[in-house]
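Table S7 (text form). Paired inputs.
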Amino acid sequence: MTDGAGAGRLSTQTRLGLFYVVSYLGTGVSLPFIATYFRSRGLSGAEIGLILAVPMLARPFTGPVLAVWADGFALRRTPLALLALGAAAGYLALPVAPGFWGLLACWLVGMTCLTTLTPLIDVLTLRRSRLDGFNYGLPRGAGSAAFIVANLAMGAILAVMAPSVIVAWITTAAVGVAVISALVLPADRVHEAGAPQLGSAERWKGLGGLLRDRTFVLAVVTAGLIQGTHAFYYGFSALLWRKEGISAPMIGVLWGVGVAVEVGFMWFAEPWRRKVGPEKLLVLGGAAALLRWSAYAFMPPLWLLFPLQALHALTFAASFMASLRLIERLAPPQSASAAQAINSALSAGFVLGVGTLAAGPLFDAFGPRGYLAMAAMGGLGLIGAVMLTKRAGR
């Protein structure tokens, strides 16, 4: 695969930004709306929850395996294109999938391929941002902005079209990601020029070395705990706010505030982030999670929700960016993909999946007090972040 003539005139930052934009145009629809499609297929709430949770719970296994596989290619963009096509195939099969088990299998294939794209593109973007001197948060933040656009657009579309349009949208986005991967992304090599291409056995050995590194494991677990605190919020914030009397449009505004501060943090806080360092950013993320979810447990008034939503810049964006930088620093170059895959599999996969499974029973038993379990996770993440700071001597 070679760069197209048009792509050759684009800056590396723009090429990477296009990837994030098209990818998050799909995620901005699949994350909030796929349950609507599954409900239209006659599934119960429990069945929908299980379908959504299974790919997340499988990520600690599927993520590293696919990352090791991806490192066997010459160019980083090749497995990105193949995984995007795999995601499109899984989504395309959803309308003809027979019942619960068929839908589960298709969603598992689609989401496993799609979520593996994130750590792989992050490795490429982090490397090029370091070499070319641009802010990683700019292309990544463009993706978050696209998420908002897709969310609002699909909300309007569903007012006049059937839920089947959700599958058509996310399939088209996945195909778009494959095209951009193949024709637009820079032709960066997996292995540096002159470095030998490692065989499968050597790549698995490198993965084992990462898991024996206590600091690496502590960093991954810490980031996973802080990111996992969002599970109850993702699943039940809208229901709780409606119960409190907050209108649906205002709930959309509150969600928009969270994503907007995330984008702003990624675009404009780069000099400050570098000065503070990833360990202290994780401390801030853990402390903010402890504060934010403790406050949500007591159903604060609408005016207070806005500054609490602004803490998303720390609970999500700061901890996410910190984990990327910290994992990049701790992992050797030949294990970069596997390291980021492990980080992503735990933070956006297993811990979030367990939290999602626990959120339903917590909601049924305790209502808004279920947020206290998320606050406790944030407290554990804060302890881990303090330990990392002490190890780094910061």
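Next pair, protein 2 of 2.
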Amino acid sequence: MSKHIQAVRGMNDILPQDTPYWRLLEDTARHVFEAYSLEEIRLPIVEKTDLFKRTIGEVTDIVEKEMYTFEDRNGDSLTLRPEGTAGCVRGCIENGLTHNQIQRLWYKGPMFRHERPQKGRYRQFHQIGVECFGLAGPDADAELIIMTARLWRELGLTDLQLQLNTLGSAEARVAYRDKLVTYMESHLDKLDEDSKRRLHSNPLRILDSKNPDMQQLIADAPNLLDHLDDESKKDFEQLCDFLNAAGIEYVVNPRLVRGLDYYNKTVFEWVTDQLGAQGTVCAGGRFDGLVGQLGGKDTQALGFAMGIERLVLLLQQVEVAVDAAPHAYIIMAGEGTTQAGLLLAERLRDVDSRLRIRTNCGGGSFKSQFKRADKSGAQLAVILGEDEVANEVVAVKNLRQGEEQQSVGWNELGAFLQSHLDLNSK
């Protein structure tokens, strides 16, 4: 007997018991985004490798170690997208969506990074992202953050903390960068190998190091907030004012720099302590220079991405209720009952598309069908025998409560189910 083929490590099947949580998250996100007049864009999974080298930065873990890169038959270097922003910017430039226009876009889909798989972090992972173009000023930053807070409320997630920072302008960062490099050079013996390698190519990324041996060194480093230009200071103060007015609680984290090179000014993360080491569930900020960097006209831009796997883990952990079980299971036993049952199920779906009806295809005794109905999780069993077909009625039995079995006419069955079921539950 040949050995069965298993999934690639870190690329997981999403099983039926988990997909209701995925749908809940995706449907709620769509609903919230539409309330803010965002439009959906769908982007390729494969892009040219240079796109990510130019946007994410060549001296980053993603580009150096984690990308799935290959040559196609034409000899072009292609990469499975490790994140969504670069492809969205590329798509908007290519299709003329950013030139003197405001765009508010969202997308969802798989991303790929060759990391060490662990809970909440996989090699194929999924994100929901939002990118907005042509919007300057902290009011746009605030609305984006307020929108994420609304999404958490609608999902029933309460244990999330907003961390906020500003990276300032490019000019301010250059001046700060020099001070940071001088400081780090004076403590060279305390830097790990990754930090030494980044010291002159991307020193701000050292502040994002998770190495516990370097945390005191990082805590004592010069503070970027002390080196901001006046415009960035004013924008950040206004952003905080907007969030305060909206009742959004936050913590200013001056070490928050984000892992990608293209951010400027506002950066933020929503974090939780409920998922162990993988505590960030949503992160983003401004990337005003990225459109110009990729050959488009300079355009203000901002956005965020949220990790679906981590949010699903959180929904399951806080026991947000989801229900994908059938509302009713139609049991059919006897001559002529199968056809009648199939047609009756169609009539019920015509009455109300929210009704989840499962028919007992494949035959079986009354006893075996009742077992299947119970195992399906259905609330009601709708029973069709030969007598019920002859009289155009059904017997309805509540499988979850000890109520008396009731006889209901075919024409009244749809209304009966509507009155006895909660069709608006998630």
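The domain at 19-169+229-317 is CATH 3.30.930.10 (BirA Bifunctional Protein; domain 2).
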